[in-house]
Amino acid sequence: MKLSVAILALSVSAASAFAPQQISTQSVTELKATSNRAAFLSQLTAAAVGVAFLQPSPALAAKYGGFGAGSPEVLDPKEAIVDTDILATASVQGALKGVKGYLSTVLELKSTLAKDSQADIGPSVRRQLDFSKIRADLNNVNEAFDEDTQRGTDRIIRIILQDITELEAANTQKPGIPRSERRLGIMNAKLTKLQTAFEDYLKFV
After folding, report:
1. I need a labelling partner for 76 at 20 to 30 A (CA). Which of 34, 119, 122, 142 fits?
2. 13 backbone dihedrals φ, ψ, rounded to 5°
3. Tell me: the pLDDT tens digits for 52-91?
4. Are 113 and 191 in contact (CB under 8 A)?
5. Per the database entry, which stretches of residues form a coiled coil (predicted)?
């Protein structure tokens, strides 16, 4: 009898050790205090580790991953709740115009690389896809959404900020060394991913 009780206790202990822990993801709105891209990526990595333990949800999961079965996060623009009064304010409309401009910039950069595979797009990325301004504009537009919708759009925002940082890093080349096809492929993939992310974000409004 004592042996059975001991075995049962060990089984419960082992099951508890391997049980998944609830991990909360960090909203981009909580990252506003981040002062530079390196710090942002550090926080982003920590958030991504938490998300990796969650079960995928159907909506747009192939693009941005899931938030867990039955979770309230909205990833389908058709289910988004938008406050039209806030959306109509000058500040949000200005930010929305900025987001559309970023999409145009991404398309221009894709065209530039298509014409010249060795083009240095770094200056354009830093000037026209300014990390801090993009984050501010996206968060500003986000204020027009309800909290559940924001949890969905926050995921897209994190992807955008991460890809901009990685695009700039991929563009960096040592003087006199031509860009390889592999690096060019990485840059084009990042630009395509950015295009899709901006387009998906704009579908919410």
Report:
1. 34
2. -65, -45
3. 333 334 445 445 544 333 444 546 888 899 999 999 999 9
4. yes
5. none
The amino acid sitting at 132 is S
**CATH number of the structural domain 82-202:** 1.20.120.290
Q: Tell whether the torsion through CA atoms of 51, 56, 58 and 64 is positive or negative.
A: positive
Give the per-residue pLDDT at 39. 57
131 torsion bin: left (phi>0), alpha (psi -120 to 50), beta (else) = alpha
Residue whose token pair is 């822990």: 21
C-alpha–C-alpha distance, residues 136 and 201, integer Å: 14
Q: What is the pTM of this model?
A: 0.67
β-bridge mates for residue 145, sequence order: 82
Look at residue 164 in the predicted model and tell me its pLDDT: 95
Please give the structure tokens belonging to residue 101: 């401009």
SS3 annotation, 110-154: HHHHHHCCCCCCHHHHHHHCCHHHHHHHHHHHHCCECHHHHHHHH
CA separation (Å) from 16 to 2, 8, 11, 24, 35? 21, 12, 9, 19, 39
Other beta carbons within 10 angstroms of residue 157's beta carbon come to 22
Rounded Cα distance, 17 and 99, in Å = 45
Residue 36: which H helix or E strand, with range?
none
Tokens of 107: 């398309």
C-beta separation of 113 from 125 below 8 A? no
